[in-house]
Amino acid sequence: MSTLIQFEKVSKVWQELEALAAQEAVEIEEERLFQPDWQSLATLNNSGVFQVLTARIDGRMVGYFTWLLDFDMESKGTLIVNQSAWFVEKGHPIVAVRMFDRAMEEFKRIGVEYAYLHHTIKGRGASLGRLFERRGAKMLGYNYIMPIAPRGAAKKAAEE
Fold first, then answer.
1. What are phi and psi of 48, to 5 degrees?
2. CA separation (Å) from 85 to 39, 75, 99, 159?
3. Which of 103, 118, 126, 160 measures 20 to 30 Å from 141, CA to CA?
4. Nearest-CA neighbor of 88 among 121, 55, 133?
């Protein structure tokens, strides 16, 4: 069994990413409308702001780890990353850890000072805080989602 963890371009692998993201949405009982904006993500990916690290076993994509590169607005010149979506199919916990460690290596390589990490409270991701802490992260706060408009209202408004 051959495992490959590598950077890939959204524009080339979006269909595989979407299939995995759909699995993730079910697992975490996602409340938001599932409709990834692949065009915007590809644009951000091509500019270097959005990065996608994938895991493949024998050529089949089994996971992704994504992040946004940014500067800390409150600390001039401080390069940060905000972890975005991270999902690995069931049965591959070691692959998930290897992806995390590979991402941390990349952050160090490009001069990131802080990585802002998060995890869900549902699904397998609920226990990721322990991994983050074992790797040196400290809990900083909590993330909340607050619905403002009815579900799908943004999509409907964009179509009008």
1. 95, -5
2. 16, 25, 12, 26
3. 103
4. 55
pLDDT in tens, 48-59: 999 999 999 999
Per the structure, the count of domains in the chain is 1
Calculate the CA dihedral of residues 34, 103, 61, 63 and round it to 10 degrees.
-50
User: Residue 129 is part of a domain; what is its CATH number?
Assistant: 3.40.630.30
Measure CA of the first residue to CA of the last residue in the chain; give whole Å.
Answer: 50
Question: SS3 of 97, please?
Answer: helix
Which structural domain range is residue 47 located in? 3-159
CA 88 → CA 13, 18, 78, 112, 145, distances in Å?
15, 13, 30, 24, 23
Look-up of token digits 């390069």: 79
Condensed to tens digits (0 to 9), the pLDDT of residues 86-145 reads 989 999 989 999 999 999 999 999 999 999 998 878 777 778 888 889 999 999 988 887
- Amino acid occupying residue 122: K
**What average pLDDT score do residues 51-70 get?**
97
Rounded Cα gap, residues 101 and 103, in angstroms: 5
Q: How far apart are the C-alpha atoms of 83 and 63, rounded to whole Å?
A: 15
> CA nearest 156: which of 22, 21, 33?
33
